[in-house]
Design goal:
Length: 171
């Protein structure tokens, strides 16, 4: 494939932890702090600007700007973190860190789009995914990565050594 094309990964054992770990679901209490807050009722969105920090339990997202898009019932339908985005998702059996320029999470579709120098690290399983753009679909258990002309997409994971035969010839 040429650089710039989307590359789909079907290596479930390698990528599945990314899907589980990127479930920053905001189901618990969500606390957002920033230098400025604006609620635009007409557009059903809450905007946090300047040193925005969203925290849920031990998980966090930090960005220059954090926007919560609401549906007609005032429930979150999408989250946008933009500018110097870094995140850490910590759950009992998961620990993922990452960074990008823009992160979009669609609540109903359970999809994540990371744009601009996207980098995800599964701290427990020692796996990394790097690309200009990463797309993760929790429902379909799919991941796609796109590169740009500067660098290819990269997936790094630890291989388990094959079990060595305990039987030796002639013994």
């Amino acid at each position: 494939m040429k650089r710039g094309e989307m590359i789909g990964f079907s290596i479930k054992r390698v990528l599945f932890p990314f899907f589980l770990a990127l479930s920053f679901s905001f189901a618990q209490q969500l606390e957002v702090t920033a230098d400025r807050f604006t609620h635009v009722e007409k557009e059903n969105k809450a905007i946090f600007e300047g040193n925005a920090h969203a925290i849920e339990g031990k998980s966090r997202v930090d960005a220059d700007r954090f926007v919560i898009f609401l549906d007609k019932n005032n429930e979150a339908r999408e989250y946008l973190a933009k500018g110097n985005v870094s995140f850490e998702i910590v759950k009992p059996d998961q620990h993922v860190k990452g960074s990008c320029k823009e992160l979009i999470y669609n609540v109903s579709r359970e999809t994540y789009l990371l744009k601009g120098g996207a980098h995800i690290v599964d701290m427990l399983n020692k796996r990394e995914m790097i690309g200009e753009e990463l797309f993760l679909d929790n429902r379909k258990k799919e991941a796609k990565a796109r590169s740009d002309h500067r660098a290819p997409v990269k997936l790094i994971f630890q291989m388990k050594e094959a079990k060595k035969s305990k039987k030796r010839k002639g013994r």
